[in-house]
Amino acid sequence: MSEATGHIELERRVNSITVGVRHRTDPERDLAPLMRSIDRLGLLQPVTITPDGVLICGHRRLKAVKELGWPTLRVWVRTGISDPLTKLLAEQDENTLHRPLSPLDAAKLYRELKDLLTEDALRRQRATRFGAVDGEEGDGGADSAPPHGAPGKSRNQAAQLISNSASHTRLEQICTIEAIAADGAVPADVRKIAEEELERIREGGAVDPSFQRVRAALKVAEEHEPDDDTAEELEELAAKALAQARADRASRIAANRRKREAAAEAARRSVHSFVLMWEDLEGWAGRYDPVEVGQELTDAQWSAFEQTFTASVEFVDAARAAREHRPCDAMASA
Description:
By secondary structure, the chain is of the alpha+beta class. It folds into 2 domains: 2-158, no CATH class; 172-266, no CATH class. The chain is built from 14 helices and 5 strands. The protein has a 5-stranded mixed β-sheet, sandwiched between helices. β1 and β2 form a beta hairpin. α7 (169-182) packs across α9 (207-223).
């Protein structure tokens, strides 16, 4: 048995490790290269579990050794894991994934889990640096990226496990606000704004506007020497940043709505919709006076009418050709 800071390495039975539903919902890629590497080189980097046997990191490694039929494997028992995170990772019921954490609670667990995943990725990179042979990946290669990519991938993995979404932006924003609020080197006026925005988020406010306000306040503080006027300027610019963030969000929502509407408009409609449209148009020619239409339409309106008519004729020709070559007709003639 070997010990490191916060870890104990030991052997544990494979079937004694609890794999929560949050790990099981992760996409499972081809395990064959990983299994070949482990079978040839052994498990170079143990999986990480809590003292209670709950899996933290290494789902693919654990699955690979199960497929290989190993009865036991080496594990890192990671101490110091919070009870809420242990409980979250041990969840077995998929319905629990629909009970969202509060934003601040989610950010706290996200930060803790991200650190654990990054720690695991760095250990695995060191363990497998010289482990891969014949072009195969080492047993650490698939779960986490090497150090230069570990932070980004760890963020995605942590966000997926905590919130069931790989988007980490909101969680990172909350962590940043919390860090600013707790940083004694940051001016007191900025820390106060950060604390106010955390309270706003706690009460159900949107995260991005609060993040923008705190970031604006920090920028002003960095560009000015602290004095009595700076506090007022901080408040003013922070308020402007909040208003701008709200306006930007409204603009993004409107733009996305327009995109969705345009996509829906451009989408091909069903044959049933086609039938209903032509049922509505049945007898339309008898309801209009062609002389009146010809005389009163503007040039633009007449051009649009002719374009629609031309497109309709082309559509009829194409549909007629397809109708003449229907599979059912060929079968009937046979």
